[in-house]
Amino acid sequence: MGLIQFRALIGRAISRIFLVVWPPEGEVLNKDVDMSLGLEFSDQKNILVTISISRDDNWTPEINCVVLTDFLPSEQMDSWLNGWMKLSLGGTFQLQNFDFSDDSRFIHLIGKSITDIKLASIGGDPFGVKLNIDSDHLMVVPISDGATVVTSRFGDRSAIEGFEYLGQIIYKDVN
């Protein structure tokens, strides 16, 4: 799961925030689209740290690093999602990075450092990861076909609340 890698993010300042979106495969609602979190840090430009949910078990949080090569502005996400859902974009469907750094729901996090990281679990195995930043957070949790991103200003809180039906959510520090 990369606990050591998660720990390495603590104290790092965020320079850009991305939503990394998989093409919808039959999803009707935007809230059901598989999206992971992408972060670029001030000390490592053009490297995208992605936090997602394992595609193997659709439960376990994972972290990866890739070279940031292309992205679209956040304003284009809805039209891309609609095009994907209607199969009107043509060509090959592929993962797409959307830069949300200037979006009003994320801009307050730019330049801020991650203060701590907690793993969310029910009965032992972690299912989500929560990065705390000042008085807000970035959280990645599983949904039926992947992951979603939730903050105090973005995302569907019911994605987290749905897990409460399975039991009490325990947040455990990774540091």
Query: How much beta, percentage-wise?
Result: 35-45%
| Number of domain modules | 1
Q: Calculate the terminal CA-CA distance, rounded to whole Å.
A: 14 Å
Poorly predicted runs are: none
Tell how many strands the DSSP assignment holds: 11
The rough form would be described as globular
Overall mean pLDDT: 88
Give me the oligomer status. single chain
Q: Strand order, main sheet: write it out.
A: 4-3-2-1-6-5
Structural class of the secondary structure composition? mainly beta
Number of helices: 3
Encode the helix/strand succession as letters: HEEEEEHEEEEEHE
Describe the main β-sheet briefly: 6 strands, mixed
Question: How helical, in percent, are the residues?
Answer: 10-25%
What does this structure look like?
The chain is built from three helices and eleven strands; from the N terminus they run αβββββαβββββαβ. By secondary structure, the chain is mainly beta. It has one domain (3-173). It has a six-stranded mixed beta sheet, with no helix packed on it. The radius of gyration is 15 Å and the shape is globular. The mean pLDDT is 88.
Question: How would you sum up this structure in a few lines?
Answer:
With 175 residues, this protein is mostly beta strands. The protein has one domain.
Summary keywords:
175 residues; mainly beta; 6-stranded mixed beta sheet; 3 helices
